[in-house]
Amino acid sequence: MSETVQDLTSGIENGFEQHPSTIASKVTTALLYGRSRLADPQQQLADLAAVDLSQTPQQGNFAQTLAAHQWQTLQPTRLEIFQINIGKLCNMTCSHCHVDAGPTRTAENMDRSTIDACLQALDQTDAHTVDITGGAPELNPHFRYLVDQCIARGKHVIDRCNLTVLLLPRMQDLPEWLAARGVEIVCSLPHYRQEATDTQRGDGTFEKSIAALQRLNAAGYGQGDPHRPLVLVTNPVGTCLAKNNPCIEKEWKAGLQENYGITFDRLIALNNMPLSRYLEWLETSGNLQAYMERLVNAFNPGTIAGLMCRNTLSIAWDGRIFDCDFNQMLDLEAQQPNGQRPHIRDFNPSFLAQREIVIGHHCFGCTAGAGSSCSGAIVG
Questions:
Q1: Domain 5-367, what fold?
Q2: Cα 362 from Cα 179, distance rounded (Å)
Q3: Per-domain residue ranges of the chain
Q4: Please, which residues have CB within 8 angstroms of residue 116's CB and are 6 or more apart in sequence?
Q5: Which member of 54, 69, 208, 334 has the lowest number of beta carbons within 10 Å of its beta carbon?
Q6: Burial of residue 360, with CB atoms counted within 10 A of its CB: 0-12 exposed, 13-18 middle, 19 or more buried
Q7: Residue 24 and residue 96: Cα distance in Å, rounded?
């Protein structure tokens, strides 16, 4: 029997949907269904462009900042990672989510024909990794089909998991199922302490995340096995930049091991991108100006060569192609040299290899400090 979105979300209403209190202490809902002005990506771009950055280097213009460091344009390198966002449906509604995912986003889910088009496009590339994201990608009814097809092609597969989804009734077997296929699990966890996690993601989230991590450990994840890697991802609470260093990872490993018997392989920290719900919080809390200045002033030219938009393609749930996941959320489609905006059904790897990457004010989020990408810090 084929599963549907309704089948896979049947447990959400039974205590698994999270509507966390944000840092500003209000209930978080999807911007789209809360009728927020920021549900429109063009409004987000306009708000970022309106920030006065005249007192920062190159007046906060990303293109001029690149040029000041001998980068006239930003162009792709060899394609290594095929990132597929298979939907915005999620069992959580987190305050920092740049995807604006949530339980109400049932319409934006990749169908089987688009998944097959992604696979046909993948076959035309030398990409070694397929990075599956969402929403909660596991809630797409074709998630397991996509994983199996990628594994059959010899690809390394990453599942970007919010942890709590593994506690849904239909996901009970998922840790073992993923382990059997050698899928890398990259999990969101704001902090190894309860207060910081629940502040960002809602009361009770930490407890459920711990339960999910223990299930992953029981399935063989996080034990140093290269075929069952478990990576934790943290986003700072508030307006701090991400901190990536061995001491912090050691602290996290000690904290989770000593208190919960949990082990994991690697910790990565990502800067919060000034998009979607996090942008809304920055505006309502009066932090947008200061945060954008912080990002611009922390620009690190050493990050440019390793930006994820250069070796990655991001495919949206509807098959449109983007330079990165963040451009996808701002509706900034990739553009081929002929000016066309490509769709996965018309995939042309040679044309895409010649494109110029679309940039904007938000790109300072990836180049601040040690840099930030889906794989963590860009420079040591």
A1: TIM Barrel (3.20.20)
A2: 36
A3: 5-367
A4: none
A5: 54
A6: middle
A7: 12
The residue with tokens 């290899």 is 353
How is residue 187 written in tokens? 């999990």
What is this structure's pTM?
0.91
Which among 364, 370, 321, 371 has a CA at the least distance from the CA of 342? 321
Under 8 Å between Cβ of 221 and 185? yes
Residues 6+ apart with CB under 8 A from 247: none
What would the mean pLDDT of 99-128 be, rounded to a whole number?
Answer: 93
Do the Cβ atoms of 22 and 28 come closer than 8 Å? Answer: yes
Whether the Cβ atoms of residue 349 and residue 79 lie closer than 8 Å to each other: yes
The residues pairing with 188 across neighbouring beta strands, listed in sequence order, are 233
Measure the CA–CA gap between 336 and 334, rounded to whole angstroms. 7
Residue type at position 270 = L
For residue 76, the number of C-alpha atoms closer than 13 Å in the C-beta half-sphere is 26
256-283 tens-digit pLDDT? 999 999 999 999 999 999 998 899 999 9
